[in-house]
Every structure is written in C-alpha cells, then in structure tokens.
Amino acid sequence: MDSVDYSVQRFPWYSPHLIIKSINKLTKMYGGNIEDKREFKLAREMFDAAVALLGSYELDSSNKYFMQANLQSNSPDVMSAKQTELLNAPILLELNQIEVVTMNEYSETDNVVEFLKKTKLSPKKSYSEKTLIVVVINKRIQIDRKKIADELKKINPKPAIYILGKLARDNDQWTIFSPWPLLTKFVIYSLSDTMKKFQLPDCVSLHRGFKYKISYTEPKTVTTTVQQLFSIKKDAIKKYRKI
Q1: Which of 31, 82, 100, 151 is surrounded by the most beta carbons within 10 Å?
Q2: CA 85 from centroid of its chain's CA atoms
Q3: Helix 41-59 vs helix 16-30: angle between axes, to the nearest 10 degrees?
Q4: 225-232 long-range Cβ contacts below 8 angstroms, 24+ apart
Q5: Of all residues in the chain, what percent carry a pLDDT higher than 70?
C-alpha cells in the first residue's frame, strides 16, 4: 500500500455515485440550506470530491476510487482509495488525501494559480504528493489550460491538481482537467451518464493484506442515514428541514 498514515479499516468506504445520490436526498430534505450552512460543509466537500473522482474516471477509466470523509484528523477533507491488480504481486492500494477549495465570485483574483497560492498552495500549507487538490470554479472566468500548467510548473507543487467546473447551474454537465503534474485533456461529462458507467459497490470495507485479486467485503457496520454518512447531527439541522 502507498504510504499514508491512515487506517483504512476504521470506517466503510463508499462509491462516489452513492455520495451523489445521498446529496440529492439531503437536498430534498433541507433544500438550498446545504449550499451555504456550516452544518453541511462536509457534505459539500464530499459532493465536490465525488464529482471530481467521477470526472477522473472520464479522464482515465482505470481511475475507480472509493471515498470516505476523513474522521481521523483535522486534514484533509476527504480520503480516496484505488485498488490495482499487479502482475505477480499483491494488490496495490493507493490512498489520496483530497483537499477541496472553491473559487467563487468573492475570490479576489481570476487567476487560478494566484488563487491557489493564496489558499491551498500558500506557504502556510504543506501537502505531500499523496494529496489531490480539487479547485471548484464557481465564477465566470476564462480558463487557459496551458497557461495554468506553465504557471504551476514554475512553483512545482507536490500535490496533484484537478480543475472542476459546472457548465450550467440547472443541468448535470461538468468539466474537468488536470494541469498538474501532467496536463490532461479537457473533458465535458454528464454526471448522470458517468454514474451509470462507474461500476463499484456502494459500500465496502478495505483491509490490509496480500491478496492478488480484487474482491469486495461488506462492512460490519453500515451507515443507515444521510445524516450519519456526512457526520451531521440531526439536532443541529432541525431548523433547516423542509416541511
């Protein structure tokens, strides 16, 4: 397993498409409150990470990640895990720490790299090469993939970076590309269509070991409500419940 100080066995792992479905349920229950109320912050981060992981699958079909909220430390927001079968070797389990940051109309700059230098790539932060930074673009700006890649090359950050955006507020068309460490193609994808193609069990347990073939184990403890899934205390969100 790639070295990340994190216990993969403590909590269940979820497919990104289950997270998307669960967010849809949460929205029906609490409406637009999930977009800005602090009680739903983890849910928003999980949603953005899930959309990015589904987008990464569109960039490369070998990118089939499970995910879970990081409940073991203050950082990162979300963890992802990918299993890969190797020739004459045990399964490789790759862990990535996902940090989500949103560039919106209140951001002081329209330059993505300058925005990153003030947020996730600031001198106050210290992320490793096992970190994936997801930049959610939520403002109308011009995106130049090559320029962003060239500017990142100058500062040579350790984390990988995805740039994620939505084409229109009322549909499920998203865009994604990675400018770093390698510049990828620009992909437009339908979230609902990608969810149909993305074949992973909804919920599994992951274990340390030396298996050579991927198999899935159901967790002993299964999360039964969307509030539990996103670590939301019901009492804290009673006032937001739609009647």
Answers
A1: 100
A2: 23
A3: 140
A4: 226/22, 226/25, 226/26, 226/29, 229/14, 229/19, 229/22, 230/22, 230/26, 230/40, 230/42, 230/43, 230/46, 230/69, 231/42, 231/69, 231/71, 232/39, 232/40, 232/42, 232/43
A5: 96
The half-sphere exposure of 169 on its side-chain side, counting CA atoms within 13 A, is: 4
pLDDT of residue 168: 75
Residue 126 belongs to domain with CATH number: 3.40.1540
Label residue 92 left, alpha or beta by phi (over 0 means left) and psi (-120 to 50 means alpha).
Answer: beta
- CA 63/CA 68 separation, integer angstroms: 16
In-domain check, residue 4: no
How many structural domains does the chain have?
Answer: 1
Mean pLDDT of the chain: 91
User: Is 150 within 8 Å of 114 (Cβ atoms)?
Assistant: no
Task: Write out the residue range of the structural domain in which residue 113 sits.
Answer: 13-233
DSSP assignment letter at 217: B
| Domain membership flag for residue 242 | no
